[in-house]
Amino acid sequence: MQQAAVTHILPVTLISRTRTLPTKGKVLVHPGQRVNATDVIAEARQPGQHLLVDVRRGLGMSIKQDIMPLIERRVGDKLQKGDIIAQSKGLFAHIVSAPIDAEIISIFNGKVLLEAPGGTIHLKAGISGTVTDVLPEYSATIETNGMLIQGVWGNRGIDQGMLLNLASNPGDELTAARLEVSMRGAVAMCGHCGQAEALQVAADLPLRGLVLGSMTANLLSLASKLPIPILLLEGFGQIPINSTAYKLLSSNEKRDLTILAQPWNRMTGERPELIINLPTDASQAPELVQIMPGMIVRINSLPHFGKIATLVKIPSGLSALPNRLRVPCAIVRLEDNEQIVVPLANLDILK
Amino acid sequence: MANSIVDAQSVLVIDLGSVNTRALLFDIVEGEYHFIAVGNSTTTLEAPFRDVREGIHLAILKLQEITGRIFVGEDTQLILPAQPNGSGVDRLALVFTAGPELHIVAVGLLNEVSMESLQRLAGAAYGRVVESVGLNDRRRMETQLDAIVRSGPDLLLLAGGTDGGASRSVVRQVELVNLVCRILPNDRRPEILYVGNQVLAAKIKEILDKFASTSIAPNIRPSIDVEDINPAMGALSQVLTRLRTRKLGGMDTYLSSLSTPALPATAGMGHIIRFLSGIYDPKTVLAVDVGASWTTLVTAQHGALSTNVFPYGMGSGITNLLQQTRIEEIAQWLPIHIPTSVVRDYLWQKALYPASIPMSIEALAIEQALARQNIRAALQGTLARWPNLNMAFEPILASGGILTSGSTPAQALLILLDGLQPAGITLAALDQNGVLPALGAISTFNSILPVQVIESGALLNLATVIAPISNEKYGTPVLSVQMEYENGSNSTHQITQGSLTALPLSPGQKARVHLKPLRRLELNPYGGQRMTSFNATGGVCGLVIDCRGRPLQLPKDEARRRDMIRKWLTALGNLPPAQ
Fold this sequence. Notes:
The complex is a heterodimer of chains A (351) and B (579). With 351 residues, chain A is mainly beta. Chain A has helices at residues 55-59, 196-204, 220-225, 243-251; strands at 3-7, 9-20, 26-27, 34-35, 40-45, 50-54, 78-79, 84-87, 95-97, 102-108, 111-115, 120-124, 129-135, 139-150, 153-154, 158-165, 186-193, 209-215, 230-236, 256-260, 273-277, 288-290, 296-299, 308-313, 319-320, 326-327, 329-334, 339-343, 347-350. In chain A, strands 2, 4, 13, 14, 15, 16, 17, 18, 19, 20 and 21 form an 11-stranded mixed beta sheet that branches. Chain B is α/β, with parallel strands linked by helices.
């Protein structure tokens, strides 16, 4: 039996997420600490601009003269603008001083490499929960119990707010007219968006986040730039929210929802996620399962994008598709009981 | 004779692709090497596996199922070498394309000299040149330094100076690289490959090796007017393998069992294409591979190789193509009406699910249109890197799932003709099982096997293609083609400008072809011998005469354009029986 990765759409589960700095830094939380999704849990210094100071030239010394004894600073020293780096001796002594506030990164061949203070990378918790583990200088693991729905695309934002369902059907389109000032501070959910104006109004209100089944791809550029988190559950086009996620979100309307609109990173497995914390204990869902009949699947290709189905059978060998391609397939039963043949590669296992 | 047939050995090659992992088996059948079968599995590089071994194991199990032979022991390990009971294999090789895009930094001297050569060398890697610094770069050294650090380099290519020539400028660039290494933390320092003035090589290695793994290869510009990239390609392959081994979880466990070091698939392809260029001399042998993440064009003429990898593909590579191509350029190749907005949505969705397979006729049409544009973009990129490339391509060897399993032979041929728009006389063949990179890897320890496998029909001949160039009006008769078949029968055909015609000539069948221009037309626009009579080899699409003109001008009217594309497909697909 073939193994496959799982997409989680779960009413309640134990959620454990390790958040890691892109570079060595400082973890600001400790095991047992409660954190909010938007709390900064770790930070790291980004290197600033570099400056190469030619001490030998500054002191007017020749290449044959040993300059190291004249350099008064060491690697790692933090300098203020004007601090002396090196000076020559004698009646007409020369001085080389720091042209900016900086740290000495390296000293070599009569040159001093300075690094100006850079920005700081702030790593947010992403989920509200309890810190269970810390890898000093790099990462923290946070756990919570609650509803979990994984999406396919996010524009990088993280926020929290009350969930508002703007869609009476999973395929309803988000229009600017559906958005009202009273929704400010909420996370709104709708089936599909094809209007730039609607996205802009959502950001201008502002909403705390926007959950969509799908969005037309011509809005990608705008959605990527908007300051509110936007998360797609199905992808690009006019794909309604899948029925399982729609039911789950509808039944949780008015609850506080965390929207973690991070991009889907297939290497690390990080995905855009929606989380509603629930005061209950649950077990963790598997990330990997054996594909077998009875499983609930979602179809991720035309002409059945986003449809939920039950896996009926995996025929041995190859099956023919309407376009005559012959590939390994599964027979699945759609929610209206129609049975169709779908390539195994086009199925998301929901668990 | 170390590699004589007497020492016949079975060979298993693992091909680690971005989406699929394949296990290819080669063995002796009736005294000669043949490709036996391939087992396929999904590549398990990504989460939640993050270990390629699972995919390799499943691909080998699939191969067991297909062949009925045993390759995996009860301990779940590969049986190596083959046992007296017939289980296992004698030799193991590995080629790879999988892995994230590498960030490459090129540091050299003059733009028109070492920098240009560096770009060509970097083009063979599965990556993108994210920063270049040459002597003409007016930025301050600190600015260059920050730009390189910010680019997050995986691989730094350093060149400059002819052998025994300039050294002071090279030293200045080495100082820059040295500073980059000092700034970056240990675990983020790039692999360095030095391909410049060999007089300085040992000293440069001594300086840089203290900070980052530094390799030395022969100078890519040994003198100002001589470029010689090929010797550096071997060193580049080794560096790429080291980089990939670090990023592909589990790959290192196979390295000690391999008969030859793991190779980038492009390097394997390069070995074979270079070999074939000896047979087809003076023509340029071209291999084109359209993968999920990369589109690769490898050419060789007189043994001189050009390897060009572009981050355009049928899966994750879509996003890169869409950044430089308008949707309309892809949609223009559709034989059926699909709104541009649907094409755009489909492609972005496909990038989210790179392993998904087109289920409908519309989805397949979009992917075949995408394949054309991938090939066109890769060809344009190749010509930008190699402006003097001899485009008298023969043969054209094509591979990649969309061509081999996602298209009929006629569709695959039309994708190639539209994408490459070759001119002159050529032969188009399909590497149906993607054996070429594997054969290239094998050629490093067994020179007989690749030759025998190619001769045994591992490649599917699509067609001998005649593509003359004429400026005559559409519909004007421009060429008379007379076919003399081996059985003595013959036929004559009048070809009109703008047409695509397939004449019957089955695979394995040969015919003497006589060409008689009826108007002004170039039969061999890229020079060389002007052939008006030649022996042609058949293919599944017969003998094809592509008189559509170069560059191919598609009708502006959408309906007419779609009709035209359907007509061309019909011309290639509905072949009358062979004589």
